[in-house]
């Protein structure tokens, strides 16, 4: 998926990269614990030849300019390294170029690719660089750091934290007599059912359940405190509380209001467009990320909405705030010709003030909590709420395992669709997911 303005964070799960910053000599101090006297071992400095670092990035348009801006600030801050940026919105092209020895020193990707790139020798482990510079990562959201790891080693740093919140239409709730959004799974199901409006022939006029733009199995599973896989990546966990309740909620709603009627809503309108059902007042609850808030603010969408955490599993208040985190990442190519220079630029970009500028410029939530305190986020719609969601201890991330693409695109997709279409019961679907996932992990 190309990193378009909003599309990079479309949550069926979500991604980023971690880092903490530093400033090179010749640049004023900023109080960052990671500030260094900097410069690449390959660099020159005053009177010497500068070393070059190439950075390819997937973003284009406004986001691409944000990356070019941080590159310029880095180049202006010191006299040892010159960073050259290039927008290459084709991940496969970047991967092939690196494998052929003609790629960039540093590039970005999605955290879901870390395992693959680590196994294939595309990405460089960062432990030695981190240890050498005593690089402080203590203020990164823990779930985002995990996204940069494979087989116990850190290969990438997370830029941001992508996650779902529960958007709700205040008018629809008020008209039905509700003054607050649902907090539990039971309340969500009851309210979604009551808020659904149908025509005489059963067509859905107002979608009560958050089944647009797709069936929210992953968001519900993690919101209910469940997971797909144990953190060590060895055990399938579909048979634990969370996943079954999520699948049951979708199944029951689909059975009551008709799968085809719901799919008709899913095919109506366009995601992140004024015709989107939520923006046009025809969806009561929506699980989506900060890009939805940004789009509505930037496009002057007049909708009285609220934003709350995902509902937790009824009877389990200890699971409140459960969610899944995903990240976008940066990694150094294993065959980089200037590892030290690439690392210096990474540290600069991930310094607290620079990461705030980069993520603030893109309307994203930074993976670093000190960056979250920057005033720029006071101007971004709902940033305060998403930053609060991100710091909950119940936020988890899918572990980076080589089998992740098959787990999501085959096991979950195929068995989930069988239940969504009422071809299997939730119990049968979960049993099949558990069996197939464990077989996959055991390979």
Automatic annotation (TrEMBL):
It comes from the Bacteria. Belongs to the bacterial solute-binding protein 1 family. This is ABC transporter substrate-binding protein. GO terms for cellular component: ATP-binding cassette (ABC) transporter complex, substrate-binding subunit-containing. Coiled coil: none annotated. The keyword Membrane does not apply. Keywords: Signal, Transport. GO terms for molecular function: maltose binding. It comes from Cohnella nanjingensis. InterPro entries: SBP, SBP_1_CS. Residues 1-25 form the signal peptide. GO terms for biological process: maltodextrin transmembrane transport; maltose transport; transmembrane transport.
